[in-house]
């Protein structure tokens, strides 16, 4: 069990100094004091606790941690740094941007108990509730892909229960299978619903009425519109199914018009997930560009996304990049564990995921579309079937990614910019084509147990 709390005191026992967890002082009073170092130290402590890492002697053993402190305490004694541990200022503003994660209610109760008795100025309870709610609110940005290319999966109703039990608020479905959609109806889970590649021709060749009938019979007959966040029109079409490539944007435009008829075009966003292979020259990220043979299809898609405020969707698999280029990419770099950093102008990359995402940002800029919102529609690490596959590496990759998303770390090119990420995938899919590892991305087993102990918040 993990507990994260805040305190204005150190905890001591009679004659024995027990567990002591300090806030790093945030300004002044000593060597290495400062908001940057305070954020690094305390942010890492928060992630250690939230991730239930424990210690080398007690791995995975939860720790209750009291963080010092709520405010600076200007009447404390020497040395000077003792007066500079506050993460909030007297007016309620943050001294630095620390994110506590999911422990809203527990931390609120503790914070109320820990209001400093010796600081001359304090925020009112009303002010503090406001600042606390804003600081600890974590955007629901993590989702999971629910693929069903398998013959041994539990019924969709069990999948819904697994998602709710694990507090996973977003799911991506790859088709409009009626039983699956009906199982999600009323669940409170946000849906990204896929249009099959083979449906693109009919949707592109028809008119608004054709798309309207398709939406009504395939989606809204089974789930209410307010549960649908995105419609993913095709998947990796430019890579997998070049025959359907000319139909992607026309299908999107017809669906957009149909959503407009229903008054839903402002609420349900349309996009088409692209494979990372649509880029060329991705090393370093700033040199990335779209494949010239695809530009005549990519640019109209970017224009639509820009005009409608819709996200650019991409599927990113550092695992595949690593295994295809193991002589040049270290496993640590692929797993968010550092390794040799990549300098790209003023930017520094310490992991392959960030470099992959920013490569798309640079490529879009070159085509005149900077700043488009991005959604990672698929990413993950297999638990078997290939080099470096396994439950440990899958936990390291997905665990590090979840923490980065929850903490709104962003990327070197877009620091602090939230990124919605869909992890692949819910279950192993034993009937998928391709290399063996393609069938081993499941985070959960068919009986609902976790393949590894991933925490999603």
From TrEMBL:
This is glucan endo-1,3-beta-D-glucosidase. Keywords: Glycosidase, Hydrolase. One of its GO terms (molecular function) is glucan endo-1,3-beta-D-glucosidase activity. Pfam families: Glyco_hydro_17. The keyword Cell wall biogenesis/degradation does not apply. It catalyses: Hydrolysis of (1->3)-beta-D-glucosidic linkages in (1->3)-beta-D-glucans. PANTHER family: GLUCAN ENDO-1,3-BETA-GLUCOSIDASE BG1-RELATED-RELATED. The keyword Protein biosynthesis does not apply. Gene3D superfamilies: Glycosidases. Its EC number is 3.2.1.39. The lineage of its organism: Eukaryota, Viridiplantae, Streptophyta, Embryophyta, Tracheophyta. Belongs to the glycosyl hydrolase 17 family. GO terms for biological process: carbohydrate metabolic process.
């Amino acid at each position: 069990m993990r507990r994260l709390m805040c305190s204005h005191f150190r905890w001591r026992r009679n004659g024995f100094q027990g567990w002591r967890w300090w806030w790093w002082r945030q300004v002044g009073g000593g060597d290495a004091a400062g908001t940057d170092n305070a954020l690094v130290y305390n942010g890492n402590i928060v992630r250690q606790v939230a991730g239930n890492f424990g210690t080398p002697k007690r791995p995975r053993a939860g720790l209750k941690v009291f963080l010092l402190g709520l405010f600076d305490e200007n009447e404390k004694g020497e040395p000077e740094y003792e007066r500079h541990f506050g993460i909030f200022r007297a007016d309620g503003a943050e001294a630095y941007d620390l994110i506590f994660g999911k422990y809203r209610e527990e931390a609120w109760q503790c914070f109320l108990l820990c209001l400093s008795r010796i600081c001359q100025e304090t925020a009112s309870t009303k002010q503090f509730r406001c600042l606390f709610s804003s600081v600890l609110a974590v955007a629901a940005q993590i989702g999971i892909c629910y693929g069903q290319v398998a013959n041994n999966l539990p019924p969709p109703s069990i999948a819904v229960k697994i998602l709710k039990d694990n507090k996973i608020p977003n799911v991506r479905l790859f088709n409009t299978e009626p039983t699956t959609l009906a199982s999600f109806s009323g669940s409170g889970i946000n849906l990204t619903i896929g249009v099959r590649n083979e449906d693109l021709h009919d949707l592109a060749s028809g008119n608004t009425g054709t798309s309207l009938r398709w939406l009504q019979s395939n989606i809204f007959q089974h789930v209410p519109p307010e549960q649908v966040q995105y419609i993913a029109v095709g998947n990796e079409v430019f890579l997998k199914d070049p025959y359907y490539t000319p139909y992607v944007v026309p299908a999107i435009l017809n669906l957009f018009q149909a959503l407009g008829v229903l008054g839903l075009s402002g609420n349900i966003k349309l996009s088409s997930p692209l494979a990372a292979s649509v880029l060329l020259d991705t090393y370093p990220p700033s040199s990335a560009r779209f494949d010239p043979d695809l530009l005549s299809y990519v640019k109209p898609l970017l224009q639509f996304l820009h005009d409608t405020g819709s996200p650019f969707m991409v599927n990113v698999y550092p695992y595949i990049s690593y295994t295809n280029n193991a002589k040049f990419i270290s496993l640590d770099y692929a797993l968010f564990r550092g390794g040799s950093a990549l300098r790209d102008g003023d930017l520094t990359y310490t992991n392959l995921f960030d470099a992959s995402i920013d490569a798309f940002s640079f490529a879009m800029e070159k085509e005149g579309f900077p700043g488009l919102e991005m959604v990672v529609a698929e990413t993950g690490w297999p638990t078997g079937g290939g080099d470096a596959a396994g439950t440990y590496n899958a936990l390291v990759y997905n665990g590090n990614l979840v923490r980065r998303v929850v903490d709104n770390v962003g990327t070197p090119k877009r620091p602090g910019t939230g990124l919605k990420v869909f992890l692949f995938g819910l279950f192993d899919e034993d009937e998928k084509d391709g290399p063996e590892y393609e069938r081993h991305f499941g985070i959960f087993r068919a009986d609902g147990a976790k393949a590894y102990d991933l925490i999603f918040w």
